[in-house]
Design goal:
Helices cover 36% and strands 14% of the residues. It has 4 helices and 6 strands, in the order αβββααβββα. Strand 2 and strand 3 form a beta hairpin. Helix 1 runs parallel beside helix 2. The longest helix has 13 residues. The protein is elongated, with a radius of gyration of 19 Å. The protein starts with 16 loop residues before the first helix and ends in a 10-residue tail after the last helix.
């Protein structure tokens, strides 16, 4: 059986900050401190953003000229009460993203809600998420 070329571009292997910066500049990828952004999409890993950018170069009809980089939302600063809940429910903050088990959330309220459900606890009504 004959197969055609792979549609998946090779994964970049840059671990050098200078090479990462060169890739981001070359492909128009923005690092907002939380995510890598390209054409309205957000990525946790630079390699995924670069692969998508390479695909867009191969297939420019996929580019949406009306879409620019997604606007960065300012990071939330948890209150003291929220930090206590985060510790109790094992909610971590990594690169400005809230993590509950394998799940990642942009908003703390969503992470705390999920953590409450996982723990089988009712939400603390006195604490504003």
């Amino acid at each position: 059986m004959r197969t055609g070329p792979s549609f998946h571009p090779p994964r970049p292997t840059a671990t050098d900050p200078a090479e990462d910066a060169r890739l981001m500049l070359s492909y128009g990828i923005v690092d907002d401190g939380r995510r890598y952004r390209l054409q309205g999409y957000r990525y946790d890993r630079l390699a995924d953003a670069v692969n998508h950018a390479r695909l867009l170069r191969l297939r420019p009809e996929l580019l949406d000229p009306a879409v620019g980089p997604a606007s960065a939302r300012p990071a939330e600063v948890p209150t003291g009460e929220q930090r206590v809940l985060m510790a109790i429910l094992d909610v971590r903050c990594e690169r400005g993203v809230y993590v509950v088990g394998p799940f990642r959330y942009d908003r703390l309220v969503d992470a705390l809600r999920h953590a409450h459900q996982r723990a089988g606890q009712p939400e603390h009504k006195g604490v504003r998420h």
